[in-house]
Amino acid sequence: MAGDNHMLADEVRALGRLERAVIDRFIHRKPGVQNANTVFDQSLTTGDRVADRVAAFGGSWVFIGLFIFIMIVWMAVNIRGAQVFDPYPFILLNLVLSCLAAMQAPVIMMSQNRQAAKDRLDAQHDYEVNLKAEMEIVSLHLKMDELREKQWATLIEMQNRQLELLSRLEAVVKRS
After folding, report:
1. Is the separation of the CB atoms in 114 and 45 below 8 Å?
2. Each residue of 6-15: pLDDT tens digit?
């Protein structure tokens, strides 16, 4: 039995930090389930939240419709307007569009990087939940096996008593 404990301790030491933490929570019956979205959202800075909103707006149909409307108005004013500030090849418009793309691309990439980090946190959370569920299932199997062993012992004891009673009855019948 002592050798089994040493082997188990060696196996636990060989596990990673995450697995040991899950086992510790399992042994001490601590809840391990946290809302990964809440944990992640609490770590966001104001700049992160602004970048996420800008990326969300920049990837929406509202932005596309507004963008097309502003471009049409820009072109109409500069083709037919009384005061033209960006004549036909629309060089200023091209500059504005280039600046918009140059600013929007890194903001979207920051948002995507945060989403990837959030996805990794979700995956880790799923792994912890699955590992704990697996440990619970193994524990339930062990308890079921233990109950079954106790039932077998009880059944064998009852059968032995019945055989003993049957032997007594047989002895009584043979005497009579």
Report:
1. no
2. 776 777 677 7
**55/117 Cα distance (integer angstroms):** 16
CA–CA gap between residue 85 and residue 100 (Å, rounded): 19
Where is pLDDT greater, at 85 or 25?
Answer: 85
Domain ranges of the chain: 31-175
Is the pTM higher than 0.85? The answer reads no
Task: Tell me how far apart the alpha carbons of residues 30 and 133 are, in angstroms, rounded to a whole number.
Answer: 13
Contact between residue 79 and residue 88 where contact means Cβ atoms under 8 Å apart: yes
Which amino acid is it at 75?
M
Output the CA angle 63-69-73, nearest 5 degrees. 145
DSSP assignment of 17-79: HHHHHHHHHHHTT------HHHHHHHT--HHHHHHHHHHHHHTSHHHHHHHHHHHHHHHHHHH
3-state class (DSSP) for residue 15: coil
Q: What are the distances in angstroms from CA 11 to CA 16, 19, 20, 130?
A: 10, 11, 10, 19
29: left (phi over 0), alpha (psi -120 to 50) or beta: left
